[in-house]
Amino acid sequence: MIVRLLLAALAAGLIAGMAMTPAQYVKTIPLIMQAEAYENGGAGHHHGDAAASDEAAHDHGADQSMFGFGRLGDTIVANLVAGAGFALMLAAVALLLGVEFPTGTAGVTRGLLFGAAAWFCVQLAPAMSLPPAVPGFPYADLGDRQGWWVITIAASAVGLWCIAMRPEWLLKILGLAIIVAPHLWGSPVPEDLTSNIPAYIASAYAAASLATTLFFWLLLGGLLGHFLSRVDEEQTA
Amino acid sequence: MAVKTASLSLTDRIGARAVAGLMALVVGSILVFGVGLANSQALHDAAHDTRHSYGFPCH
Known about the structure:
The complex is a heterodimer.
Chain A: H1 2-26, H2 29-41, H3 49-56, H4 70-97, H5 105-129, H6 142-165, H7 169-185, H8 199-236
Helix pairs in contact in A: 1-4, 1-8, 2-8, 4-8, 5-6, 5-8, 6-7
Chain B: H1 10-36, H2 41-46, H3 48-53
């Protein structure tokens, strides 16, 4: 049964991850490529001291490919791995919290809600203080941003669990406080906010990133709910 | 559900879910870390568009 549960999560993740590449090529990647043109064209542009050394050796994967598949191939592989990873983590949360997925549409509906909750924690909550950024954005220190990002996702998940899955009012209020706390603390902000990237591309990109990932998480949640309900059904039948 | 005879007892099912959940958590974290956060140049370049699209902190 353990293997079946893991395979159910993996299948949902690979399907959702596969669907993500075309979604990205419609919405986000054209904007990334446009931004890169401005990034490379902007002579003398700085990303701040911390990022400057990193920037010198920076390469967008267009010239060389890790797997030899080219940029598109690399993105397909990366999306499959990301899909599998997110699916396993989402399934882990469901299994460890004892969330059951009933058979039929009820399981899919619960999965969709679960996916929406994950989208809030992984995408919307961090984006509120650390917006999704195209290449060439002014950047604060990478380690600081990654740390803040991970902590915010964890806090949002714990907070949402307190609000959605605990009956106690005190815990619900505490959950809200936990969700808000990283934003009050503040995300790492670059000292110099000037950039060569046109504002239109940047704002369109933030919306495109949130929209494509909402598609991903809803698809992943729905599939996960469906597949996990099938595992339960077979085990109890 | 309750009327059907379970092929596994309830405790076994709960145990299997917990073990599967922990395994999924470990493997999933490693995969997400590798795609989104690992500081390797090769991984960064390969996952570049994915990292940006998912809003991972990048560069």
